[in-house]
Amino acid sequence: MGASTYAASLPFKSVALDGLSAIYHGASGATHVVAEPVPQILEALGGDTLTLAELLARLGADYDLDDDAEAGLSARLDELVALGLVIAR
Amino acid sequence: MFDEDSENEVSGAATDAGRRALMLGAVGASAVLTVRPALAQSAVSVLNCQIPVPDPARAGQYIAADGTVVAPGTVGAFVPAPRPFTGQEVKQALSGLNLPGTSYTQNQAYLNYIRRLQYGQSGFTCFASLQMPGR
User: Fold this and answer.
1) Is B14 left (phi over 0), alpha (psi -120 to 50) or beta?
2) pTM for the whole thing?
């Protein structure tokens, strides 16, 4: 919360697992098994540093988003920051 | 599998007809499970980790030749090590060098103690890390 930009914590490797994804995070050595929309958020971030609005626009270009998308995305990003997969600046 | 620039994940989704809904606001479990290797944190510091002989819970007790911890003054046993050994020192000792400041038999006793370390004892994680391939 309060961060202005977000970037994925690289490197990571994501493997799809029957509806879930296993993400190996190189910096921590941890493996996270995650559900949608986490892989999609990380893919949208790619190697870039984006604001919440920019990230939302990228996702919106590829997906139909629900009504509370901005609040939802913000909450998901907070979770990903807590996991270490996303760096907030 | 995808990599960052891959279109795989969204193939078909970019076309108007194939756009797919993405639920960003779904409550709860975006992170289902995290697996953290117990020894991952020790990987970078394994050679600087420390193994006290004996562990602090048994400070002052002697080390018998077979590595067991015995009462102070026991004949044939060795005084406690004056300082903890580092992972690097133990690694070298396992390949034939003596632990610093020890005689041959004292070194053997200390190494026997270290080999008998169990989970929960001070130095166990350090010793276990030394056993991992590539260390």
Assistant:
1) alpha
2) 0.50
Give pLDDT tens digits for A23-76. 998 887 788 888 889 999 999 999 999 999 999 999 999 999 988 899 999 989
Cβ-contact B90, B102 below 8 angstroms: no
Give A73's Cβ-side CA count (13 Å radius): 25
Short-list B113, B13, B64, CA closest to A40: B13
Token pair for B76: 């044939």
Instruction: Return d(Cα B2, Cα B24) in angstroms, integer.
Output: 20
Q: Which domains, and CATH codes, for chain A? A: 6-88 (3.90.930)
B35 lies within 8 A of chain A by CB: yes
CA gap A87, A3 in Å, rounded = 9
Q: How many CB atoms lie within 10 A of CB A33?
A: 16
Rounded to an integer, what is the distance from CA B52 to the centroid of its chain?
Answer: 14
A31 shares contact with chain B (CB less than 8 Å): yes
| Nearest Cβ partner for A29 among B14, B26, B37 | B37
ipTM score of complex: 0.79
